[in-house]
Amino acid sequence: MKTDIVAILRKGGDNFVSGQTICDQLQVSRTAVWKHINQLKDDGYIIESIPKKGYRITVYPDRITEYEISPWLNTVELGRNLVHRHTVDSTNILAKGLAREGCPDGTVVTAEHQTSGRGRSGRRWTSIQEGAVQMSIVLRPHVSPAKAPSITQIGAASIALALESLGVSPRIKWPNDVLISGKKVCGILTEMSCELDHIHFIVMGIGINVNVRSFPEEISSVATSLALEGQDNLNRARLAADVLNRMEPLYRSFLQGDSEPFLSVCRRLSWLRDKSISFSRNGEPLSGVAGDIDDQGRLEVIFPDGTRDYLLSGEVHIGSI
Q1: Is 92 annotated as a binding residue?
Q2: How far apart are CA 288 and CA 224, in angstroms?
Q3: Which residues contact 17 (CB under 8 A, 6 or more apart)?
Q4: pLDDT averaged over the chain?
Q5: Rounded mean pLDDT of 286-313?
Q6: Order of strands, edge to edge, in the sheet holding 308-311?
Q7: What is the structure's pLDDT at 290?
Q8: Containing H/E element for 201?
Q9: Peptide bond into 145 cis (omega under 30)
């Protein structure tokens, strides 16, 4: 009901909306409206109320809740079931639990703060309270598990497109990071529950540094935020919705067998192309030069002897061994 009340008051703009009008639209009692208005105040909304005139919102909080994200969504499924917690150990952990319980395809979990967020290889994700878009998306694609790595690239392309719309110049570090000015502004962690030929669910965790002004010393040279790149006081909920809005058509095209929409973005914004890289395969360190991304989303690697190979997934480092 809080989502509906926020939507009604938002539509009213600077005008007061009477309690009776809210009651009539939602078919609830005035007591119920009053109760939820007070809950919204506890959530950070500043709501002015005047007897015989009604209510109006004068300040909206910077929260990535369902009632702040929903007004910006134009998706059919992604984000239509949204679970928000102020603090969690990890949005991916919560999302995986909900997925096992049968939550709908496209469920999104958001949080203002993570106490145990992590990235690839178990690295700790630094979470600045109310400074980032931290969300996990539950997907149930009817594709082979072998095609699951494409989901990460769909996420990276969607985020990059949303950031481009803000006027910044993102680059995608294959397969799961988005950079600005050579520094990481967003990381993606994709986890899957599957059998040999069937995906039960995929959870894609996204962390975008938005209104973060500083980072711990150990990562300050490699991390950045939209605020540090000149994008001050961004609406995190609107950014989260924009990512979901851009992701859904890319995801649907992928499910229909067309990967070109997201691959074209990943190729255009590739940060690794023509750079010397190193990686490990079966415990053996290897070096080469990054080429393009092929039609399967694999990264081409050109070795010193001129031979070529393709990486489907994994961690790639800049520089030769």
Answers
A1: yes
A2: 27
A3: 8, 9, 54, 55, 56
A4: 91
A5: 94
A6: 308-311, 299-302, 284-293, 276-281, 317-318
A7: 96
A8: strand 198-209
A9: no
Query: What's the predicted TM-score (pTM) here?
Result: 0.89
The pLDDT of residue 255: 97
CB atoms within 10 A of CB 81: 16
90 annotated binding-site participant: yes
272-291 b/e (C-beta count within 10 Å ≥ 16 → b): bbeeebebeeeeeebebbbb
Helices (H) and strands (E) in the chain, counts: 8, 14
Using the predicted structure, report yes or no on whether residue 120 has a pLDDT greater than 60. Answer: no
Is residue 119 a known part of a binding site? yes
Does the annotation list 91 as a binding residue?
Answer: yes
For the cut 80, the answer to whether the pLDDT of residue 320 exceeds it is no
Question: What domains lie within the chain, and their CATH numbers?
Answer: 2-59 (1.10.10.10), 66-268 (3.30.930.10), 276-318 (2.30.30.100)
| Annotated binding residue 118 | yes
pLDDT at 126: 58
pLDDT band at 128 (very low <50, low <70, confident <90, very high): low
Buried b (16+ CB within 10 A) or exposed e, 217-241: eeeeeebbbbbbbebeebbbbbbbb
End-to-end alpha-carbon separation of the chain, Å? 57
Instruction: For residue 182, say whether it is annotated as part of any ligand binding site.
Output: no
- Most confident stretch, 22-36, 90-104, 222-236: 90-104
> Does 120 count as an annotated binding residue?
yes
79: left (phi over 0), alpha (psi -120 to 50) or beta: left
Tokens standing for residue 120 = 């690839």
- The one-character DSSP state at 118 is B
